[in-house]
Amino acid sequence: MRESTLWIIELVTLIIMIITLPIHLINFSSLIIGPGYATAMSYEEVIARAKNLPYVISSILLLGAIIYHSMYRVRFMVSELPLSKKFERLISLMCLIVGIIAFLYSFYMTIVAILV
Amino acid sequence: MEVVFKIHRFDPSKDVSPYYKQYKITIDKGTTVLEALLYIKERLDNSLAIRYSCRMGICGSCGMRINGIPMLACKTQVSMLKSNIILIEPLSNNPIIKDLVTNFSNLFAKHKMIKPYIIRKDSELDNPTREYLQKPNEFFNILQFALCIKCGLCWSACPISSDNRYLGPFVLAQAYRYISDSRDDGYNERFDIIDSPHGCWRCHFAGSCSQVCPRGVDPALAIQLLKKSITTTKLGLKKIKTAAPVAPPLTEVTRKLDVPQPPPRTVFKNQRDSTNER
After folding, report:
1. Which of A4, A79, A88 is nearest residue B230 as measured by Cβ atoms?
2. Which CATH number belongs to the domain containing residue B204 in this structure?
């Protein structure tokens, strides 16, 4: 894939993060400072929140965006090292595989939380 | 005023590692670092290797790190440095040939890769007939970036240039200079190299290249504009420009009736131009 395409995807993930991260933080901060703080972190409350579809979608988007952003930046930093072209490609491939595994795992955990 | 110059010395053919040698000299108000170095070379140590040419900040040959900052030695007055001990080192990120002279071949090879010249699809460059039409605002868009003297100070200051495959600030600034030139038609030819893994996307926008540029070129701005240009073109928000047309042939010129005829020629072919000293 071309570097400019990867860059554009990163710009998209940044926009996603700008939108979904405040949703995520506000959701939790309202729990902490709100009246329901005492029970908010109980197992039932957490599961109930996990089943809220808009929140689930925003969490999955946030997870995907953060994983892409972090893996892209790891690749970015590693590519500045004096490595051979072959090794550089290997690093790119590893970042892709680690990113996919991390996303699938976090996606699975979110779905499991809904199905519980 | 007495100043101590602590100069980086290294001859790869003789020395195992670089070392610093000190020279104490008296300087006048307005003495430049280059003048001081030439004084040292002429009077104290003729083995010192320096590269210089124009002595007036035009050629970009005398770039070196002065007290750790990449500068042109000919444009830097010793009194400006406000220090009695001046550390002189070669530009970083380039192999050292000897003492303060570094090898720019890698940098110039990258410069060549981005095709730093006007590219046209028509045959006008090979068989020129007339000038290209360029509006003043189109000219001013590229003017700042066209001032680059390829001194390599930006490359030395760039924190990413330790990655030797990175194209670097001045090469990318030149790429932008030609891509944004209204007369140029070579966007697609340069795209592959600029959009490569070690192209413009590697820039972290530290901005040190723009800080040290002796000509105010602002390579960091050029790189960001390059990124913007590629992104908007790729997203279809900006069309790839068509190159400026060639000026149409002049139509017949007729003299206005109220404009008087010019006086007869006073200088002729093969005549010595002694009368033209105005």
Report:
1. A4
2. 1.10.1060.10
